[in-house]
Design brief:
By secondary structure, the protein is α/β, with parallel strands linked by helices. The protein is built from 13 helices and 18 strands. The longest helix has 30 residues.
Length: 398
Amino acid sequence: MSKSEPVLIVGGGLGGLTTALALARRGRTARVLEGAPEFGAIGYGIQFGPNVFHVFDRLDLMEPVLAVADSPLAVLMLDALDGKELVRIPTGASFRARFKYPYIIVHRIDLHNVLLDACRSSDAIELVAEAMVTGFEDRGDAVAVTTADGRGFSGAALVAADGVRSLFRAKLIGDGEPRPTGYVALRSIVPMAALKADVPRDCVALWGGPGMHIVHYPLRHGALFNVVAVFRTPTYAERGDPAGYRSEIERTYRNADPAMRALIGLMDLQWRRPVGDRDPVRHWHNGRIVLLGDAAHAPLQSLAQGAGMAIEDGLCLGEAIHAAGGDYSVAFARFEAARLLRTARVQLESRALWQFYHCDGIERDVRNATVAAWDEAHMFDCMAWLYDGAWFPAEIGR
């Protein structure tokens, strides 16, 4: 296959689009296949640490990303039962001085559109909507896929950026459904003018409590307020109706701080999903097919790094393909080696934080007493492995 043969990317989310841009930056063509009728994103908020800006900077996306994003004053953790502030990580000047880049909050649709606009402006990237991939074949010197409507596409290699329930993971790894946690998540966005609860409006705040937590922050320069409510329930895998969901969530949060209960009253109960992740695995590729993002290493949301890891993957994979001169076997092995320990650490530390957020009894008392001794320098040091640019492999060029 010549250099002009496109790399097929299955999945038009943040990781897939970043991969396409990284390939185009190095003169390689990409065809992005998206199963939905049009390219788009789920309409809720998302957080990003400085680590993603090592990618955005190289792809010349800093300016458009920052134009649609906000930088909160701080990231807070509060006790869900008594409302006490446990942790405050300032994300202003001292944070920027330490990590070189900002911490941002952004509407997922707005970020997705930044990446889409960049892809549409590149002659090296073809975006194909309503192309739900249902079958594939690695032919040794090429990869071919078929879609639900009977179309076929071929390319030099294939990047599976098709999410936590990846078709390609099911075939390549075969480890079944995501690992359930027994928790569900509900997401809502409301106009800031509708917010009556006495909660911080200029920070990212996480209220952690026994079997429950809430995360909230502003969006679109203070016009909107994003709320995510998470809680443990024996009905996590069941479908119900909004009235039943309302009764369940009010019962779960009955002992929470009044501010949390006020936030619960704002929730749109139509969007309710079980929370799960994947166990780390050592191998994400086979032949000319490689997994990327959640298809390879889906974490829990504790570190707010699922999308960040997919974006990092995209640049790293594009650079690995370039460095290997289009030898996909070599490129995929280098990509896997470069990303394995970092993404596995995100998965495992996210699990540990999940327990940390949901402490009860004496465990909660120990947690609260422990974090009281943390100062800014300590917290910055704890985050350095995640936010610094050391993840970017030395053998992958700029």
